[in-house]
Amino acid sequence: MSLGDTVAELALRRRRLAEQELRPSHLHEVTDFGPNPGALRMLIHTPDLLPARAALVVVLHGCAQTAEAYAEGAGWLTLADRYGFVVLAPQQTRSNNPNLCFNWFQSGDVARDAGEAASIHEMIGCAVADHGLDIRRVFVTGLSAGGAMANVMLAAYPETFAAGAIIAGIPYGSASNMQEAFGAMGNATRRTPEAWGDAVRAASAHAGRWPRVSIWQGDSDTTVRPGVADELVSQWLDVHGLDDAGGEEVDLGDGRRRIAWRGADGQAAVELNRIAGMAHGTPVGAAVLDGDGVDGCGTPGPYLLEVGISSSLEIAQAWGLASGGLASDALAAKGSGARAAKTTGSKTTRGAVADKPAPSNDEGAPVGGIWAGWGLEAGSGGEVGKVITDALRSAGLLK
Length: 399
Prior knowledge:
There is one protein chain. By secondary structure, this protein is of the alpha/beta class. The protein has a single domain (3-394), classed as 3-Layer(aba) Sandwich (Rossmann fold), CATH 3.40.50.1820. The protein contains twelve helices and 14 strands. The strands form two sheets. It has a twelve-stranded mixed sheet with strand order 13-8-9-10-7-6-5-3-4-2-1-14, with helices on both faces. A two-stranded parallel sheet has the order 11-12. Strand 8 and strand 9 (256-262) form a beta hairpin. The longest helix is centred in the N-terminal third of the chain and has 20 residues, at 3-22. It is globular. Residues 15-24 and 324-399 have low confidence and may be disordered.
């Protein structure tokens, strides 16, 4: 794709984002949730019927997406209404990142009590206090840059989360600047499992139980290379003190494999879902049935890939938020050929609380390479970088 085609496509995505922001919202905004060092917006969805001590799911959008579009398109708003939990969908701002990417590679945004990570944690405290939510059932998930930021939250605030799901994300501590981010996304960051685990352990003084982690990756992803998922697995296996050789692998058919590593309690402490042929995005399966015979959820679109797998539904079931269906630890029973093996809108203002991807074509293929996908500023690559930067500025995509 030529530079002119890339710029045109990015400009089209920018216009579509603007159109999304003008649509009626299923989320409402809380404008005063406490300290906001990361300058993010707090958007939240509360179902009409909310049980006492309900759960909270934090949903982090990818690049070139809005919080509303991703939370709705991935099916989380449908699931929240169906099963009775709250969705918190932090929104990145263009003043922070022109392509609306969470700044997972900026050291000032990923440390505990700093930047964007601290802002998201403040939002969680606000949501829990305002709605009387169960602090033992707080979860986080995200796609692409949002998946990397979900991993940031699990590392920096492990005591806050029961579990997390990382979709096409990046290991914590793999980048602190743009150049390192390129390497991390391309699977150039090689470390021992202990080194990956040390990065998480150094992010906080946590000495308790670690959150369970589910990792999802398409094998045809050219934005975040498939091997990056292996580094994520290594990171969290080391944190949980688990041996890579102890994984249980299940072939679920249709090119999908799941490997689970169980903790002492028998639950899957770390799991990896690999989907053959899937590009960069979140797997959706609108026609998949849950345990009650109700259709799955999600709407296909950019970064929302219809592959017959309702990942949000399966994640919610694994977290105990949705009854019946393909719960994480029952996936081995899916299909007659499954086989197991061992393997190596409105705004609300309130007082502060005390506690605190690349634009793609309609088939999900990334546009303009990895620099466009993650909102990394071009310009450090000499004359070529300057041409790209100037072109993006002329299209209104960079300041």
